[in-house]
């Protein structure tokens, strides 16, 4: 072993003699921030990005647990950047970039601390630690989640990195007077971080082990314990933001965690939702997700570990193969960086056993421990052959962002250890042999080069334009029923941040199961609160109309709250203006469907009714026979389409679904109103679980071309629409570099 490593002959005092290289850490963080800024999303993105950007901008309350610490920090950050003239979305996306880059800086300091004990040369350790920060910052998921604020997790990664650095400082300087503050700060960050997301508390087991091994007697005093209790309580108390803000009734107020008294709110906050205020407790405990205990596995542990390893394989060379599945081309980089991480842990073992204990426990927590705790169903793509109920609705790699950032740090330490080991076999002075073997460090560039095309979000306007196109498809004061996150959250972003088409009432079908959401819809559509239609946004698109004179439903709120699923004992006919639907005996109408029917009935005379697709809620309610394609949306027409169609309506061919289309209006939307950036022309669409969005454009263009041909429109128009359909199909297949186009002529 001596051929490859020579242990230092100095004690731990080496690390107490000089100030840590904070400027180098800042440089590493700035380098990561610059990379993220260069590849930054220029607007919102799919999944939760729109929800978090909108709630940060409006100080609203996102889905449970509400993330108040993130929301407030992001709002402050956005206000500080407001004088720059950057858009709200860019400012919030830069918040993700900044917090992730800050984590890179602190992981740099940790890597340097380990490597200093190996190189015994401050400057060599400073250079070697850069490899660590580069690998961690450019791991695929880390990078892809740092250039758009899709989740709240970059803030948690930063907290994990800071707490880890405070643990190192305590280990090195804990004998000095007043250094208990390092542990107090760590405890405070863990506590207040939990008010953003519980990912923030993941360093707790490793911190506990380090404190047991490093001067526990300094902390076992009444003074320290009382101060620690106080700072933990202070951090957790940030959750009081939720009931305070909910009481002010923001437009986005998910869960409505209001409380009748301060005492009930306090009980819920300090018990983490186990007792106290019901609404706040439900939010803090994430009751709506009905997560089973970890011993009730949603999938076999081996399957869960296989999915984790699939995501691990993406991190270091995502661009070598377009497939989401494990690929032979990515095998060697995966094995390399997996091995380098273990070498990094070995280097920590040799350098400092106590520090190794912290790093090893943290590694175990962020890998196997996290897989056990998260308890996911089968992987979205790894087990695509299974029924959707048995697998996740999307890839869940973002839950492991801290894992991959940290493993990149360890891999960089391992790479530096190999550099040092190789240099000892070269003849010459220390500077010369390290210079000759320096090309080894170029391996740290692999993730940067191989992940860029897949991790970048530069120029991606797809989610924003999808939302714009969907909202512009709806007539003034329309009601739009949506099916899930991706046809809902971007609409919230556009309405609350860009203030586009705020007159449209967006209804999330799944939320109608709750008691708070239908009540909020009623309140937000009352005549005094109904937001107006701005005809100047698209002149001559729609006729302006008077605002509705009533809420979207007139049912008493107390009655509305009592609605529950029912199995029909007999055939039941539900009448709307000019049409009626009969539901057979034995059919179950759940709460959401009954409320949707009542909303349609009460709104139809003053509010046009739309659905984001003819499937989902519209199909379950048996209303598709009255559906007319209106651009991307389907409008519910209150008339017999066979005998009384509107002028301009045409029915498509059977091979294209025999759907009814408002051809004139749809062509106007398609050619004059819609925006398609990143939807019709794109090299790589990395997230395959969102390809349904460009696919819907493909279907729309195809059906429009069919209707245009049936209506005797020009062959040039028909061919242009078919060419567009082909382009949308390519994007839906993964992008021009991935998809193989099927002939649709």
Please, could you describe this protein's structure?
The structure is a single chain. The chain is mainly alpha-helical. The protein has 3 domains: 374 residues, no CATH class; 177 residues, no CATH class; 91 residues, no CATH class. The chain is built from 28 helices and 11 strands. The strands form 3 sheets. It has a 7-stranded mixed beta sheet with strand order 2-1-7-9-8-11-10. Strands 3-6 form a two-stranded antiparallel ribbon. Strands 4-5 form a two-stranded antiparallel sheet. The longest helix is centred in the N-terminal third of the chain and has 32 residues. It is globular, with a radius of gyration of 29 Å. The relative contact order is 0.09. The N terminus and C terminus are likely disordered.
Shape annotation: globular
Q: How many β-strand runs?
A: 11
**Spans with pLDDT under 50 lasting ≥5 residues?**
1-12, 741-745
Put simply, the count of helices is 28
Report on the biggest sheet: 7 strands, mixed
Broad structural category: mainly alpha
């Amino acid at each position: 072993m001596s051929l490859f490593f020579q242990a230092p002959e100095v004690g731990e005092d080496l690390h107490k003699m000089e100030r840590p290289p904070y400027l180098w850490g800042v440089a590493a963080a700035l380098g990561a921030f610059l990379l993220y800024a260069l590849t930054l999303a220029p607007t919102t993105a799919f999944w939760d990005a729109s929800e978090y950007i909108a709630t940060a901008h409006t100080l609203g309350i996102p889905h449970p647990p509400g993330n108040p610490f993130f929301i407030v920090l992001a709002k402050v950050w956005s206000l500080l950047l407001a004088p720059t003239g950057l858009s709200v979305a860019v400012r919030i996306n830069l918040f993700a970039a900044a917090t992730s880059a800050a984590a890179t800086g602190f992981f740099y300091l940790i890597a340097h601390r380990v490597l200093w004990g190996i190189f015994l040369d401050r400057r060599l350790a400073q250079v070697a630690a850069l490899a660590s920060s580069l690998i961690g910052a450019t791991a695929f998921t880390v990078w892809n989640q740092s250039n758009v604020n899709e989740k709240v997790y970059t803030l948690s990664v930063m907290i994990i990195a800071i707490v880890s650095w405070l643990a190192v400082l305590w280990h090195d300087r804990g004998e000095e007077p007043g250094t208990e503050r390092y542990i107090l700060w760590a405890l405070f960050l863990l506590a207040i971080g939990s008010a953003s997301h519980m990912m923030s508390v993941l360093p707790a087991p490793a911190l506990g082990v380090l404190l047991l091994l490093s001067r526990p007697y300094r902390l076992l005093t009444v003074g320290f314990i009382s101060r620690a209790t106080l700072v933990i309580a202070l951090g957790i108390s940030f959750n009081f933001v939720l009931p305070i803000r909910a009481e002010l009734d923001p437009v986005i107020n998910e869960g409505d965690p209001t409380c009748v008294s301060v005492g009930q709110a306090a009980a819920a906050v300090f018990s983490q939702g186990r007792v106290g205020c019901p609404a706040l407790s439900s939010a803090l405990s994430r009751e709506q997700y009905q997560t089973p205990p970890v011993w009730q596995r949603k999938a076999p542990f081996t399957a869960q570990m296989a999915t984790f390893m699939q995501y691990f394989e993406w991190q270091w060379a995502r661009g070598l193969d377009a497939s989401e599945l494990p690929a032979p081309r990515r095998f060697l980089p995966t094995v390399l960086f997996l091995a380098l991480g273990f070498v990094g842990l070995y280097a920590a073992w040799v350098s400092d056993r106590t520090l190794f204990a912290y790093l090893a426990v943290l590694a175990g927590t962020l890998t196997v421990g996290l897989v056990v705790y998260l308890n996911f169903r089968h992987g979205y793509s790894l087990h695509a052959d299974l029924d959707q109920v048995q697998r996740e609705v999307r890839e869940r790699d973002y839950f492991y962002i801290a894992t991959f950032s940290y493993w990149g740090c360890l891999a960089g330490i391992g790479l530096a250890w190999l550099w040092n080991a190789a240099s000892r076999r070269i003849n010459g002075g220390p500077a010369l042999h390290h210079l000759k073997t320096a090309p080894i460090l170029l391996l740290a560039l692999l993730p940067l080069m191989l992940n860029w095309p897949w991790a970048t979000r530069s120029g991606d306007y797809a989610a924003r334009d999808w939302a714009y196109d969907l909202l512009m498809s709806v007539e003034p004061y329309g009601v739009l029923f949506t099916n899930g996150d991706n046809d809902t959250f971007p609409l919230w972003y556009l309405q609350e941040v860009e203030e586009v088409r705020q007159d449209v009432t967006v209804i999330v079908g799944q939320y109608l199961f709750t008691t708070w959401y239908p009540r909020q819809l009623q309140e937000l559509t009352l005549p005094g609160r109904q937001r107006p239609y701005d005809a100047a946004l698209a002149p001559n698109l729609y006729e302006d109309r008077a605002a509705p004179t009533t809420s979207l439903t007139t049912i008493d709120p107390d009655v509305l709250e009592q609605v529950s699923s029912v199995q029909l004992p007999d055939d039941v006919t539900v009448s709307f203006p000019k049409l009626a639907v009969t539901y057979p005996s034995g059919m179950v109408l759940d709460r959401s469907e009954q409320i949707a029917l009542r909303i349609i009935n009460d709104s139809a005379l003053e509010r046009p009714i739309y659905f984001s697709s003819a499937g989902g809620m519209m199909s379950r309610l048996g209303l598709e026979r009255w559906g007319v394609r209106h651009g991307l949306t389907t409008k519910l027409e209150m008339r017999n389409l066979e005998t009384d169609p509107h002028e301009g309506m045409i029915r498509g061919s059977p091979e294209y679904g025999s759907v009814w289309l408002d051809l004139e209006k749809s062509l106007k939307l398609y050619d004059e109103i819609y925006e398609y950036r990143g939807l019709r022309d794109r090299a790589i669409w990395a997230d395959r679980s969102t390809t349904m969005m460009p696919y819907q454009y493909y279907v729309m263009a195809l059906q429009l071309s069919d209707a245009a041909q049936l209506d005797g429109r020009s062959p040039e128009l028909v061919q242009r629409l078919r060419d567009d359909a082909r382009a949308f199909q390519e994007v839906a297949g993964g992008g021009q570099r991935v998809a193989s186009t099927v002939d649709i002529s």
